């Protein structure tokens, strides 16, 4: 049993149901360039990658598959539209408020989202109240997900240890990062972007357990930790 563990949450797809918007806009651009890729493969390879890695990989994918370049203006237009949609359509993942309200242990956010946008997401969804100063972005460390740096940094800043921490992640790259940091990592499939088989992908990436909802997470915590008391 975990004794008063530090809870480390990814943001998009775990706390905020925004990954579906990112994927829709990215696939819109891929389709416009004549690139047809398997969604499961793309999600596993691209989701939650550190921003510089993701951009290079995305641009290279279009070049390799379609033989055309994605211009700087096209890339920035995609990012701008995505940000507009996030601001207008943002909502929490079902049950997250009940789960966070029940926690009686320290909790923080460790997200690939750039720091200039991450607090805004949490404020818009009224989730910032649960984390205080414990909000950490991939641009705070040298190597983002799937490297362990962000999780190690978050644990250190929160005064916790990797042996008594739990990471909640919805992406392959996030799970890999959590496990590389030596932290017990729960795969989460409660976001609307998750598809049939996403749980198996997270298990294959190394997730210690995969849970389908925040209510299931609460039940798991009640059995395996004293995080709720």
Please describe the structure with a list of short key phrases separated by commas or semicolons.
alpha/beta; Rossmann fold; 2 domains; six-stranded parallel β-sheet; PGP-like_dom2; HAD_sf; HAD-like_SPP
Summarize it.
The chain has 229 residues and is an alpha/beta fold.
Topology:
Layout: E1 6-9, H1 19-32, H2 39-46, H3 51-66, H4 72-89, H5 96-102, E2 107-111, H6 118-124, E3 135-137, H7 149-157, E4 165-169, H8 172-180, E5 184-188, H9 198-205, E6 209-211, H10 214-224
Parallel strand pairs: 1-2, 1-4, 2-3, 4-5, 5-6
Helix pairs in contact: 1-4, 5-10
Number of H- or I-type helical stretches: 10
CATH-assigned homologous superfamily of the largest domain: HAD superfamily/HAD-like
Order of helices and strands: EHHHHHEHEHEHEHEH
N-end to C-end Cα span: 13 Å
As a percent range, the share of strand residues is 5-15%
Instruction: Tell me the number of structural domains.
Output: 2
Task: Indicate the overall shape.
Answer: globular
Low-pLDDT segments, ≥5 res? none
Count of β-strands? 6
**Strand neighbour order, sheet with most strands:** 3-2-1-4-5-6
What CATH calls the topology of the largest domain is Rossmann fold
Arithmetic mean of pLDDT: 95
Structural class: alpha/beta
